[in-house]
Amino acid sequence: MAINFAPKVGQILTCNYGNYLKDENGDIITNAVDAHIPPEMIKYRLVVVLNGRLNGNACIVVPISTTKDQSKLIQGLHVELEEGIINEAKYFPQTTSWVKCDMIQTVSNIRLNRPMDLGRGWVTQTLSREIVTKLQKAVIKAINATALTQPQAI
Hints:
The protein has two helices and seven strands; from the N terminus they run E-E-E-H-E-E-E-E-H.
């Protein structure tokens, strides 16, 4: 079920990115431009909202992964979230995870939902301002715009 509200910056949601298109043999079709193509993000996963007020029907998000990419972590493109920072949710156990800020994307609100609670209901969580700032800085690095954050010479 899609969200029907404007999420807050730093809010944790789920996103159904879909999957790769496959042929009758189960092989990924890599030239189908009307579908996801590797290495584009796929699957149902947690995301962090960076802008929930674009136009009322889309958000800018960055995906969260439980797979560590050491080289991108060193480059400052991924941000580690220690175990316990994100509340446990159905299908998403508490574990160390990484926000993939190099995979920033605008997605339709139809793809987004609140994570399901372990019992009943929904998880409503927003990351701290300090963590969101780290994510925003990593996005700036990912889009090669770090010059914008440098002090200007007078």
